[in-house]
Amino acid sequence: MKTNSRYFMVFMAALVLICSGCTKKYETQISSVTKSKIVHNKINIEDYITEDGISDEAPLLYVQDELIEYKDIQLYLLYEKQKYENIFGKEVWNIKFSDDKTFEDFVKEEALNQVVKHKIVAYGAEINNVSLEPGEQIDIENEVHNYMTNFTKEDIKKYDITREKVRQIVYDNYLTEKVYDIVTMDVDINVDENEKDPESVIEKRQDEMFAKEYTKWFDEVDIVIVSQIWKKVNIIQ
């Protein structure tokens, strides 16, 4: 589905910038299915289901005892939804990988893994005593303001976009990039003089160094999905 809507393109551009994560392009594979402990019968799901759908405060995920609520993943879900619909059209939601897994399930997992990645890095920041400085907090507020001005009032109402939701993602992105830089600051920068693209060689070393540390953090952290709520999440509306 292609669209010429200027507002849609602005909307997508803002979502891409907010939800794409830090600028570093490290690749660390996460399997939320194999790592996660599925929680059953520990909450009353009716307390979090309203006439309008799932409550923003519905407990969705715990990462090392930190609660991630439904509102914390909504923009990630929206970004993934818009991305695939813009490429393949709404027909993409008819795809089934198997009898028990749809394309929607795949997209939900992508969004969930993005949130998990940020929280794992936040754990790494904590054990390495990494935090954002007051000046960086000001930069975050300025960036949040810029993003919010890119959304139309209609989009904000339709997709329930709030400053709080945007601020959390921007904060996570800033922290992730700072942790990446600190973890990889001692990378070997010596490259063979005959190498055509020395910068990419160094970046690959940084990615590998970060991925190694990330894997350690991932193995140390408990990840718990509140399955009753997760099953109710529906991105096709």
Report on this structure:
The structure is a single chain. The protein has a single domain (about 5-230), classed as Triger factor/SurA peptide-binding fold, CATH 1.10.4030. It has helices at about 5-20, 30-35, 75-90, 105-125, 135-150, 155-160, 165-185, 200-220, 225-230; strands spanning about 35-40, 50, 55, 60-65, 65-70, 95-100, 100, 225. Residues about 1-5 and about 25-35 have low confidence and may be disordered. A four-stranded mixed β-sheet has the order 1-8-4-5. A two-stranded antiparallel ribbon has the order 2-3. A two-stranded antiparallel ribbon has the order 6-7. With about 240 residues, the protein is of the alpha+beta class. The longest helix is centred in the middle third of the chain and has 25 residues, at about 105-125. The protein is about 55% helix and about 10% strand.
What would you say about this model in short?
This protein is of the alpha+beta class. Helix content is 55%, strand content 11%.
In order across it, which strands form the biggest sheet? 1-8-4-5
* Class based on secondary structure composition and strand pairing: alpha+beta
| Span between termini | 16 Å
Give the overall silhouette. globular
Q: Summarize the main sheet.
A: 4 strands, mixed
Multimer state: single chain
Instruction: Give the count of helical stretches.
Output: 9
Reading the helices and strands in chain order gives HHEEEEEHEEHHHHHEH
Outline the low-pLDDT stretches: 1-5, 23-34
Indicate the CATH class: Mainly Alpha
- What does the average pLDDT come to? 82
Instruction: Please indicate the count of domains.
Output: 1
CATH-derived architecture: Orthogonal Bundle
β-strand number: 8
Radius of gyration: 19 Å
| Helical amount | 55-70%
**Strand percentage, roughly?**
5-15%
CATH domain fold name: Triger factor/SurA peptide-binding fold
